[in-house]
Amino acid sequence: MDEIDELLSIRAAELYYEENKTQDEIGQALRLTRWKVGRLLAQAKQRGFIRIEILHPRARRLPIERRLRDERGLTDAIVVSVAGVHSPEELQERTAQAAADYLTALRPVPRTLGVSWGRTLFEISQHLRNGWATGVNVVQINGGVSLNRRPGTAAATAVGIAQKGGGSATLLPSPAILERLATKEAIESDRVVAGVIELARSADAYLFSAGAADHNSVHVESGYLSIGDVDVLVQKGAVGDVVGRYIDSDGNIVDPALDARTVGLTLDELREAPLAIAVVAGTTKHAVADAVVRSGLCSVLVTDEATALHLLDG
Amino acid sequence: MDEIDELLSIRAAELYYEENKTQDEIGQALRLTRWKVGRLLAQAKQRGFIRIEILHPRARRLPIERRLRDERGLTDAIVVSVAGVHSPEELQERTAQAAADYLTALRPVPRTLGVSWGRTLFEISQHLRNGWATGVNVVQINGGVSLNRRPGTAAATAVGIAQKGGGSATLLPSPAILERLATKEAIESDRVVAGVIELARSADAYLFSAGAADHNSVHVESGYLSIGDVDVLVQKGAVGDVVGRYIDSDGNIVDPALDARTVGLTLDELREAPLAIAVVAGTTKHAVADAVVRSGLCSVLVTDEATALHLLDG
DNA sequence: CGGCCCGCTGCTCATCTGAGCACCATCGCC
DNA sequence: GGCGATGGTGCTCAGATGAGCAGCGGGCCG
Q1: Of chain A residues 15-34, which have a CB less than 8 A from chain B?
Q2: Which is deepest, A127, A189, B244, B268, by most CB within 10 Å?
Q3: What is the pTM of this model?
Q4: Distance of alpha carbon A299 from alpha carbon A295, whole angstroms
Q5: Residue stretches of chain A with pLDDT short of 50
Q6: CB of A8 within 8 A of CB of A30?
């Protein structure tokens, strides 16, 4: 297309999209046949001169979702638009909402849903509607009795999801990470704990998030790890954690000794799950998100547009 | 529209605009009739959920142009899009290009065109194509023999416009502002100068810009005014200058004594012109642009989207 | 110089879309 | 409980649009 056609396509686009003229009217105005106008408009679109955005908190980016499925082998992907987002909190909320929507629409409805805990999961639980399902039983898949001043968000998350879904929650009564391996093994051999983990293994679907390996981690906030611990993990290559287990950019466990002291499902158990839904959003989590998807930790990803593009285009 | 319809309209918009589905297909996907889908799409548009932008340096904003004509009484208005603009220079270039386009398309072609000078005018002259008109004679409408190291841009501007338009230029061989009133009167009584001004008065159309009243003014750069002079003018209410004459926000001369020492057409002569084209763009010029338009200094305005919206919505 | 190829143009025709209209359910009022 | 108003729904039909195709012309090579 030469420059004259390029300019004409812009003039045509102005009249078509801003003035709501028909292609025929535009043809008369620019002294072109209406077919030429149609072709100019098609070229303007194809060359990227026309940008159409859907401005809404619930807007999704279907083409990016398709690319994630096709190029990253995911069963499904939900990508929320970042158009008009001004704060990380808003992004987080949009993503949580989308995850809640996804769960609500999920068919077949899982009878048992394994969930992790954390800020993201808690927000998802808040965005679920009463009656989002009928009879969904929820089971915690990793330890989470909080050690500090915010006790119970782990429990509140699981219970909230279960209650709104007309089912009951089974909590995992254990800390996330124990100080000594022996203690961890003792706890896991407790009949109740072992039973919960067994139930968790049999869940139809898992819903979990991922944390970035930084000082704002919930593990630091909850007192399971010190800031120094996190720094050491980062030095060893950690990009973040999934169900309390820290991984590097290839999805491998960074510190096997620490991992052995962590209570809950293992990452390989997640990888083999029939349905593993990861909800990961925000600039700080680009690296973990990449590790999660590359190493096959999830079959469904709920994320934001920027993170998705990071996964796809590097 | 309740929330459920709002969500549906977003889903429909995603499928329609991002996936290029027909309304009928969307209807099948969402279990709606195609008419319902059409209505949802119409509502999404009408509620502003759909934003369509034309991304191109030559793109204009026709709806804003119409508002300027209707609400500000302009004969014509050209508004360039600011989508994708990253620097003031880029904005300036787009506007100059648009002004050049406007001149080129102007009918009837003016036989005599009065022009001012300055950065904007110079850039317009550069964006005009050879042969943009046949036989347009150009006459300078305000003094402009530059006093400093950049001599001749005033002359180059007029000559450039004339040559590319297949005509000749008549320069006004006089400084813009003289130090003493007597000198100014003497110069104006010079036969050549008087002749040029007489020719300028008879021009079919005028093309000029406006300067902001700040330290970057061409008058400061050219040595006609000191930084202190400008500060004094600003204190008196000056928002900028048109053909070298400083005006306040109502378009009135700020300093009559200074004005009397300024060579060239008066503002009232511009106001009575059959066609006065002002080219004003950039954040720094919002205030002058407002004064120019409000006080009827131009009948045609070439500007950028942000400036135009400032004029319209304050 | 003639013939061939390629791309553009303007057409036909099928499909898609929006305007307008009749119908129906719901609601408030009598 | 009857009745009109109101808003939403699904239709008809005409206008708008896109796909596909024949024809033309300009450029290139033999």
Answers
A1: 15, 17-19
A2: B244
A3: 0.89
A4: 11
A5: 149
A6: yes
